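ARCHIVE CARD
CATEGORY: sequence design from structure
SOURCE FIELD: tokenized fold
FIELD CONTENT:
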């Protein structure tokens, strides 16, 4: 569904004229009319206003999936005015900061969308539960990851979401004693000890580009 149809549906659902709708959105009546008839693109910040002022699900706005009458998928992070943002699929899957079951993004459905300033190259967000990566990642924080990388592209010492056929884990990644291995390491000193992983056992490796505290959501 085009944004023109979505905008018109939201306005009619709220029983508003274009003038009333424009006033609520803090734009001109001409802007609402031109977006609705498809003669111009929605101006920057319009989605934020629709989400915050009309309780619209950001995922429905972005993809047309779901129902605008349902409660918005949680969480929804709304950027400050003027900030460049990225709308990233949010998977409400527990990405543990210690060993857990495997994960295949192709088989999962996003629970919603996060609109986060400065995360334009990220492809997915996940909640993380566990304290092994504190203080960088606290229990309940949300991580944003970029496209999967190969072993040749690893930035040693950075934090990655590491997935094998048996488990997933969020750790810093370091060179192994031989070329066949990488080392996974916690940040929290209370979780001492390295995990040696054979490169051939990797299913996917995602660089963690940022962390969003749930306290700020």
């Amino acid at each position: 569904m085009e944004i023109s149809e979505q905008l018109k549906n939201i306005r009619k659902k709220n029983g508003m004229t274009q003038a009333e709708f424009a006033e609520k959105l803090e734009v001109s009546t001409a802007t609402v009319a031109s977006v609705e008839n498809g003669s111009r693109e929605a101006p920057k910040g319009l989605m934020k206003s629709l989400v915050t002022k009309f309780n619209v699900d950001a995922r429905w706005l972005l993809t047309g999936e779901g129902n605008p009458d349902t409660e918005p998928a949680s969480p929804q992070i709304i950027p400050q005015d003027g900030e460049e943002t990225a709308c990233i699929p949010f998977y409400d899957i527990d990405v543990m900061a210690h060993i857990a079951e495997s994960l295949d993004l192709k088989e999962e459905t996003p629970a919603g969308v996060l609109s986060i300033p400065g995360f334009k190259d990220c492809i997915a967000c996940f909640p993380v539960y566990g304290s092994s990566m504190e203080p960088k990642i606290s229990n309940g924080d949300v991580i944003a990851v970029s496209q999967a990388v190969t072993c040749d592209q690893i930035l040693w010492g950075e934090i990655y979401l590491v997935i094998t056929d048996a488990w997933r884990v969020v750790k810093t990644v370091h060179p192994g004693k031989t070329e066949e291995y990488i080392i996974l390491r916690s940040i929290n000193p209370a979780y001492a000890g390295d995990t040696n992983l054979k490169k051939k056992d990797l299913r996917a490796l995602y660089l963690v580009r940022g962390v969003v505290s749930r306290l700020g959501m």
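CARD ANNOTATION: The beta strands are 85-90, 112-117, 122-127, 142-148, 159-164, 168-175, 181-185, 195-198, 202-212. DSSP finds five helices and nine strands in the chain.
SHELF: design records, drawer C
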